[in-house]
Amino acid sequence: MRVVESSPDVLEIEIALPGFAIWFMLGPFVLFGGLVTLAMLLGGEFLDALSTGMILAIIVFIGHYFITRTTHLRLERDTGRVSVRRCSRFEKRTCVFPLRDLDSAEVSQNIGHGRSTSRMTLVFSSTRPATRVPLSAWAVSGGGVGDLVDAINDWLTCWRDANLRNSPEEETAGP
Amino acid sequence: MRVVQQSERAIEMTDMPIDWIVGLGGILAILAIALLRAIAEGALNGILISLIMIAALGWITANEALRRVTLHADRAAGTLQIDITTPLGRQVNDYPLAGVSGLEIETRHHRRNSMPQPVLTLMLHQDGAPVRQQLPLFQPYPVDLLYASQCFNAWLAERAHDVPQTTVMPQETLR
Questions:
Q1: What whole-number distance in Å separates Cα of residue A54 and Cα of residue A29?
Q2: Are A57 and A75 members of one domain?
Q3: CATH code, domain carrying A74
Q4: Contact B22/A90, CB-based, under 8 Å?
Q5: Whose CA is closest to B138, among B56, B49, B29, B24?
């Protein structure tokens, strides 16, 4: 998870697991599974080697599919829109919304087995009640998510402040 | 929910949970390999267990994950068609477009863990009374629902702009 671009005009954030984490999760399956399969093959157990190899290949494929999905969040001041682009092996999908519909970003936490994990969630206020949109299917531990959420909220605050400065009549108009 | 076609005349959206199909398909493939291996070894218990698990998971996959929900609205025909297709059958519902107020997102909470679960709801007005009909989507992404409802409601609002004398803004009649 990282900030790709940050300026008063554009904020772009990429939500993806780093490469080493992907290797850390899939590597043991590939390495030890491959060795076990090879040992079976050398021992003449062709049927066992074939089925074990195929099952391992499916597990690695599914694991790779789910942990390599990425999400790009882009907030643009000029066009006044926010786009959420989801990419996976089988689909690429972009959803664009008006920036005024985005209320804030927040951290949603899951606490289980004495360990807390968090993920980033966008709050869209165009519906009642507001719709919370998680940006990733997985959650991580540590403080990185909070930093990115702060970056989004700071950028939104600056954008709203700039809008108020540009249209002072809205500011003075009372209820 | 993905917008597959949008023009002045018609809008079509479809939902297919690809992530779930990949996940459940992978598990089914592993069970199929286990079944073949049990058949090759002549293990009756293994064959029975594999068959039972394949049947149970296959039933869930066919009924839920492979359920394709297509929403097609046609301005010229004046209809909204909701097509729900599974490998086990097909159900088509037609509604007059004049009676459709729009799509809304309702946030329900999971009975077991209280996690929020957004639901796409079709808003109709029949005999002056608002009617809500939930669309049976399987584990949709909140961002897709938000985007689909935004696109559909914008498309529907164009109609009200085009013929202001003959139709009343459906959203206004509900409020």
A1: 12
A2: no
A3: 2.30.29
A4: yes
A5: B24
Cross-chain Cβ contact A93/B144 below 8 Å: yes
Task: Chain B: give the shortest CA distance to residue A158, in Å.
Answer: 24
User: Chain B within 8 Å of A3 (Cβ-Cβ)?
Assistant: no
Given a contact cutoff of 8 angstroms between Cβ atoms, the answer to whether A135 and A119 are in contact is yes
B23:A97 CB<8 A: no
Interface with A, mutate which of B4, B103, B143, B174 (most A CBs under 10 A) = B143
**Among the partner residues B18, B23, B33, nearest to A51 by beta-carbon distance:** B33
In chain B, which residue's Cα lies nearest the Cα of A66?
B19
Helices of type H across chain B: 18-41, 44-60, 142-162, 170-174
Same domain, B61 and B98: no
d(CA B70, CA B68): 6
**pLDDT tens digits, chain A, 175 residues: what are they?**
788 888 888 999 998 888 888 888 888 888 998 999 999 889 888 888 998 999 999 999 999 998 888 999 999 988 989 999 999 888 888 999 999 899 999 888 777 666 777 888 999 988 888 888 888 777 776 667 888 899 999 999 998 888 887 776 554 444 4
Shared-domain flag, residues A103 and A150: yes
**How many residues in chain A?**
175
Q: How many helices (H) and strands (E) does chain B have?
A: 4, 8
